[in-house]
Task: structure prediction
Amino acid sequence: MLEFLIYDAKVAVLIAVFYMFYRLMLSKETFHRVNRIVLLVTSVVSFILPLCVITMHKTVTVTAVPTVNVGEMQAMVVEESQPLWLHTLLPTLFIIGMVLTLGYTLLSVWRVVVLIRNSEHHPQEDGIVVCVTDRQVSPFSWMHYIVMNREDYAEHNEAVLAHERGHISLRHSWDVLLVDTLTALQWFNPAMWMLRQDLRAIHEYEADGAVLSQGFNARQYQYLLITKAASIGGYSIANGISHSTLKNRIHMMLHKKSQGSHLLKLLALLPIVGIALAINAETVTNVVYQQPQKKIIKKGKKNATVKMGPVNEIVVVEQAPADQKEVKPVEMPNAMKVEKAEKEAFDVVEQMPQFPGGPSALMQFLSQNVKYPVEAHKAGVQGRVIATFVVEKDGSITEACIARSIHPSLDAEALRVIGSMPNWMPGMQNGEPVRVKYTVPITFKLQGNDVKAKEEKYILEIDGKMADDTEIGSIPPGDIQSMHIEKGENGQPKKIIITTKKNKD
Result:
């Protein structure tokens, strides 16, 4: 409900801006048809523009891999507490105002329908029905009905009938229904009520113009308006003669016709719409997770390292001496080469594979589908399971395995969820789909008093791959080339990165 109130507040601002434009630019002009369209269109557009969100995409490439925290049975989402008036009192007040405003409109419609039903009907040749009532009401029109009291019908004043026929032919009743319905959603907005009042005044200007266009004397017609406006009774939903706009109507009849060049003022609406769309625009950041580049090995005369930018590097390995015989590899047939190349999976490609909906959708899928195994829960086991799999050319998931194990039940749960994932968008290399390896860490964490195991303090990475603590002991001390520690961010544990001298072939 709070989201709807925010949307309705944006609508209120737009209505106020559009109405201010009308008052400053067009209210004094005699373009009654244009002014009517402007008020109707801007009132409707004000409800549409907040829904038109221009999305701009921004791609950010990072080398870190996202982590999913899984609770005891499901991921926990903590929402910030909101004040009572914001999520309870404010929506209640809005609904009460909307119901009262809409109820008043419906009550007015019901009263008009009952009055028409209980009146004498006198069908006319043009399809209009004149309804005669014994009540003391000023003449008004509703849809294709003209309602007047018996005294006015006996006078058979053609100017009054021409005025109400003008309302009917221009379909003013539909305008009133539309704006009154929108007013129920904007009952708190003074600009909406003023727009509603000005629209009804334009209706009267148009109906007066229809009378004068038939050759009626302007002064006699103005005197008739003054006489009828003093009559009692009226219905808010109907078009009738009212003394509230009488002065403006007489002034508009005497006003000089506006020049056509004044319509250029409508161009001022374009920047207003453009600014509204710009303010409502949003930027979506697409995160592309990239693994570190592999080394490219090339033969040369000396051992050396050639730097190729901040990431890539070429390692030159010393060739065998001339007096030693170099063992040449057995050449494989072309068919076997193609088959082997097709089975190989890339670590990094130009366009990495992506879960349908992006990384956020992947995190949501894992959070909703991973269940904490009962066995691990009873044993108080928690920690991070690192799973790897291959995204095939058709997007299917194969070769899922555990790169870092915590507990058999946690490993099995991670593999189960990975196997249930839908097809991904495959990775692309040189415009062709290829097989790509992908790594997803999943953190199993018990909540509250259920925590029995120690939370992991760090992540171990050996030669670019996630490793277990036991693997450190299997590395000869002389083979360790470098070791450094990266501090964890956003609550993540620190990372110990070890680089060895092996795998030079």
